[in-house]
Amino acid sequence: MSARRLEGRAALVTGAGSGIGRATADRLASDGARVVTVDMAGPVDITADVTDPGINAALAAKAESRLGGLDIVVACAGITGMQMLDGHDDEFFERMMAVNVTAVFRLMRDTMPLLKRSPHGRIILIGSVMSSFGEAGMTAYSASKHAVLGMTKSVAAEAGAFGITVNCIQPGAIDTPMTAPAFTAMPEFRQRWIDKAALGRLGQPDDIADVAAFLASDEARFMSGHGIFVDGGATQRQ
Fold this sequence. Notes:
Structural class: alpha/beta
Helix content: 40-55%
CATH topology: Rossmann fold
Order of helices and strands: EHEEHEHEHEHHHE
Low-confidence stretches: none
CATH class: Alpha Beta
Radius of gyration: 17 Å
Number of helices: 7
Shape: globular
Largest sheet: 7 strands, parallel
Distance between the termini: 35 Å
Number of strands: 7
Strand content: 5-15%
């Protein structure tokens, strides 16, 4: 396996300011890809809110102008949070859908013309183990990640005619700036996820980035339409 297996390929990574997105952008770059990074904050190439209705078309245009095309799209921008159903407010639910679902849909739609021109088109979405089981207080988040998995399957069926693969990574509990507040506020919640994992630890952003780099490579050229669990064996211990 070449250390520069993505040499010359052009990638767009959203949510790249920190956590999984940052690790993924760095890993793709280390494998030779030219990467445009996007986030609302942090050291990124483009500062943008992915929920802006017109931003993804603008991102596609910027990727084309900066990179000359696009081979790899990785949608890492996302949010999480907990609210019990009794008293669950509409704004929380709608924000979850806007970031985790609608923005991902628009990103795929608006970058598809560029990906169709690539001989190595790849779409990689970030789902969650929460699309396979439920968790109290996670109705909105779980619904959003079920939607991501559904979009993965449908877009894969459509994009395959153009040689584009579409896959979804389904992480377990990953130690990132996004999850840190919940783990700090509820140490028992953190420990419960450590105990869930057969490997006995939380995941790290690099655990996900390594899988993303594989999916972006030629080694994964015949994989499409799948959710890939990267959870330390947590789904085996329900």
